[in-house]
Design goal:
By secondary structure, the chain is of the alpha+beta class. The chain contains six helices and three strands; from the N terminus they run H-H-E-E-H-H-E-H-H. It comes from Methylocaldum marinum.
């Protein structure tokens, strides 16, 4: 049933669905954070309609709950959002205009780290 639920939602929301439980009169959907639960609630009418079309089952109620993993349990890949391209350049330019050696060195290291994060994220997107 979880696969059907995921197919009934837009992809950017489906990836946050962790599990579901079917009761005679309701569907309980577990998601990986409260923020995504809120977003999925907007799609409840469409979700229930698509589930009815594909399975014939139309629950009276849809409950969306936050899934709480056990300590140390990792149930999904964290989504890393790389910083915009201009941030590394902005940090580098700020470092070059800084007068203090310690601040300048720190900004240059931060610029390099941000650039490396961006390159790593772009490499993963190209796979």
């Amino acid at each position: 049933m979880l696969d059907l639920v995921k197919r009934a939602l837009p992809g950017f929301l489906a990836v946050h669905c962790v599990d579901c439980v079917i009761k005679p009169d309701r569907l309980i959907l577990y998601v990986d954070s409260a923020a995504w639960a809120s977003q999925i609630r907007f799609y409840a009418p469409q979700l229930l309609s698509k589930l009815e079309q594909s399975t014939g089952f139309r629950p009276k109620d849809l409950q969306i709950r936050n899934f709480v993993a056990s300590i140390g349990e990792n149930f999904g890949r964290p989504r890393i959002v790389p910083p915009p391209v201009f941030i590394a350049e902005l940090l580098k330019n700020s470092a070059l205009s800084a007068s203090s050696g310690e601040i300048k060195d720190s900004l240059l290291r931060l610029s390099a780290t941000v650039g490396a994060l961006r390159d790593t994220a772009q490499g993963k997107e190209n796979r």
